[in-house]
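Could you join me in thinking about how sequence relates to backbone shape in a protein? We need material for that, and I hope you will provide a protein of your own picking. Label the sequence line and the structure token line clearly, so we can match residues to local backbone shapes. Would you write everything just below, so we can both look at the same thing?
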Amino acid sequence: MNDPESLPLACTKLLHEKTRQKLTFAQIAGHISHDEIWTAALFYGRAAPSLKDIQLLADLLNLSAETLEEDFRISGPPLREATISHTTDPIVYPFQEALELYKPAIRSVVTEKLGDGAVSVPDMKIHVEKNSTAKGCDVKLVLESKYIQYHSW
């Protein structure tokens, strides 16, 4: 997960208020009309909000919209670097890049929904679907696996 000290100030404020108010990414996403993974990515500095998003977040989280907008502006564009192996495979690379980019968002949403645990790769099923659209073909990749809870002892 991202180190809170390395996150932009706006993101630190958003995460603090989310935690303080005991909100989920799904609840926040519903309020701002975005997907929960995109919303979590925004909170971890991996996506850029619109002015409307900032206003809606400020209202929900009791923050100053003007200050939040300034904090996002000062922090610059979202961090979207990927630190993955340098594969050039045109099928595999986009998935590696997407997982690296959205890693903190995916991890947060999964933990929020299922608790502290781990995804089991040996139990994983992967489905590939072809979706025909007016613009051509899309690929849908579904990863389904057992989620194993960590236990205290």
The radius of gyration is 17 Å. The chain has a mean pLDDT of 91. The longest strand covers residues 125-133.
